[in-house]
Amino acid sequence: MIVCMTTTTLDGKAALVTGGSRGIGAGIALRLAQDGADVALTYRQDATQAAAVVKRIEALGRRALMIQADNADPTAVRDAVDRTAAELGRLDILVNNAAVFLVGAVGDLGAAELEQTIAVNVRAPYLAVRAALRHLGDGGRIISIGSNVGERAVFPGLALYSMSKTALVGLTRGLARELGPRGITVNLVNPGPTDTDANPADGPNAAAIAGFTAVGRYARPADIAATVAHLAGPEAGYVTGAVVNVDGGFTS
């Protein structure tokens, strides 16, 4: 098969998308590849899903790499970043997407759930950035995926998850100030309700959730990926420290 490759906004760039085998992460990985980047993605368990995304990236004429890594493991996080840079030859874009979503009353979620949530949703992005800074140069991009419930928790049981995603606001703004002189931008994208296998648009609570948006519907992963791709590209070089809500007006 002959693949036609064209120069795009991310041509020659290499990206790492954590949790890129499914849902929003897979959408982001595919969009970055469509825009010209070689893409590495991490997955925790399902190698079949990860391989399917890799196959689609390669069909676009881009290099792809799948890395098994549990974001709760600090060594695995660091090694995923270093392996991406080694095997793709560089690292220009880091997308912190992998997360756990533990829901329940504070009285029901104890130390174990707290530690898991902080480890994956907060510590891992921080450690991934630390590792990436050995590889990112001028024009580097760091983009984290937060959540609309970090700004508006409309149901009970979201305190732990909301707290972890709100922490990314501080991380993003602090890093933007620190890394600006190096030509590296740092931004946060907060998706609203998005149609994935974990949160399907036809799920039991979907109508109520969609009703909290201004547009009355769920997003597609591609809607979130489009904003990430813009922030990863050259035209967003003056955007840093920003929190971008791609939520259909959920937080309006």
From TrEMBL:
Q: Which UniProt keywords apply?
A: Oxidoreductase
Q: What is this protein called?
A: Short-chain dehydrogenase/reductase SDR
Q: According to its UniProt record, which protein family does this protein belong to? A: Belongs to the short-chain dehydrogenases/reductases (SDR) family.
Q: Which GO terms describe its molecular function?
A: oxidoreductase activity
Question: Which interval of the chain is the signal sequence?
Answer: none
Record-listed E.C. numbers: 1.-.-.-
Species of origin:
Micromonospora lupini str. Lupac 08
Record keyword Transport present: no
Q: Read off the lineage from the record.
A: Bacteria, Bacillati, Actinomycetota, Actinomycetes, Micromonosporales
Please, which domain of life does this record's source organism belong to?
Answer: Bacteria
Q: Does the keyword Transmembrane helix apply?
A: no
Q: Which Pfam families match?
A: adh_short_C2
